[in-house]
Structures are given as C-alpha cells and as structure tokens.
Design a protein that fits this description.
By secondary structure, this protein is mainly α. It has a single domain, classed as Four Helix Bundle (Hemerythrin (Met), subunit A), CATH 1.20.120.450. The protein is 60% helix and 5% strand. The protein is built from 6 helices and 2 strands, in the order H-H-H-H-E-E-H-H. A two-stranded antiparallel sheet has the order 1-2. Helix 1 runs antiparallel to helix 4, helix 1 runs parallel beside helix 5 and helix 3 runs antiparallel to helix 5. 31% of the residues are buried.
Length: 169
C-alpha cells in the first residue's frame, strides 16, 4: 500500500494543530482562573536561548503551511509574526488549518519525487525530494515546535496530557 504525501502531511498537521489550539485554550483558561498575566505563558521559555511559546506556535504553523504548500506546488502564504495574545494564536492556527485544507489532494500527486529546494541561491541551499522533505525535514521540524509549545505549558502547570497533545484522530 502506498501512502500519498497529502495523507502523510495535511491530516497530521491538522490533527496536531487542533491539539495545540485546545492546549492553548486550557492555558488561557488557567491564566484567567488564577489571575495570571497571559504573557507569563506566552513569553515563557524552557531556556533563555530558546524561542518563547508565541514563537513556537508561529513556527509550527509556518511549517504546516509551507511544507504543505511546497508539496502541492502552491505559493507559500507570507504572514506577519505579530501575534500577541492567545486569541491571536488561535486565529493563526485556524488560518493555517483553513489554508492547508484548501489544498487539493490531487496537487500532491508526484510530490514524493519532486525536488524541493530550501534556501535557494544561498550557501545553505539544500535540495530534497518531496518524500525526504516531508519525512526527514518538515514533519520533524513541525513536531519539534508543537512539542516544545506543549512542554512549555505543561512545565507551567497546565493540566494537559498526551491526549491533549495528540488532538482528535
């Protein structure tokens, strides 16, 4: 049985983005109930040289939309990174989910052998097949940032578990 790159990407991104949205709702509710400034969570980091929660969510969304777009040979939407609240992050997640859902599954056909070029024209240029791009680069990057966002909130005392991380499947 062959699994299409659409099946291996868009539903996975959507599922975990849904879980991330739910985790953020719990964090916002936790902050409200305990009268904690939401920025305490939004700007939290596991270590000073890491990105804060806000940026982790932005990057997770960026990987979901850019990987899906490149595999589908669609233009990658450029969005400003100006989110400053839980509501803003929910909006970005919803926009990401809507974008990837709008990609036609047929546009992913042949993507496994299609060349994907990262950082074209720079000394860091890297060429990967669509298969390697998704499985060895895109999904691991996406999972890293979603996991880090989850870990930041769990570390802050939000009552979340693996089911929350996984989202609906």
């Amino acid at each position: 049985m062959t699994v299409s790159l659409h099946t291996a990407s868009v539903p996975v991104f959507n599922q975990l983005l849904g879980g991330l949205a739910d985790v953020l709702k719990k964090a916002e509710a936790h902050a409200t109930e305990r009268k904690i400034d939401p920025n305490a969570y939004l700007q939290s980091r596991l270590y000073p040289d890491m990105f804060p929660l806000l940026r982790q969510v932005q990057i997770a969304c960026d990987f979901a939309k850019s990987v899906s777009a490149r595999l589908a040979q669609a233009e990658v939407p450029a969005w400003e990174d100006n989110e400053a609240s839980f509501e803003d992050l929910q909006s970005r997640i919803a926009r990401t989910q809507a974008f990837i859902a709008s990609l036609d599954a047929a546009s992913f056909e042949g993507a496994e052998s299609r060349d994907i070029v990262l950082r074209p024209g720079t000394p860091k240029e890297k060429k990967l097949t669509g298969h390697a791009y998704l499985l060895n680069y895109g999904l691991p990057q996406f999972f890293f940032h979603v996991t880090t966002a989850y870990a930041l909130l769990r570390h802050a005392g939000i009552e979340i578990g693996k089911r929350d991380f996984m989202g609906q499947y």
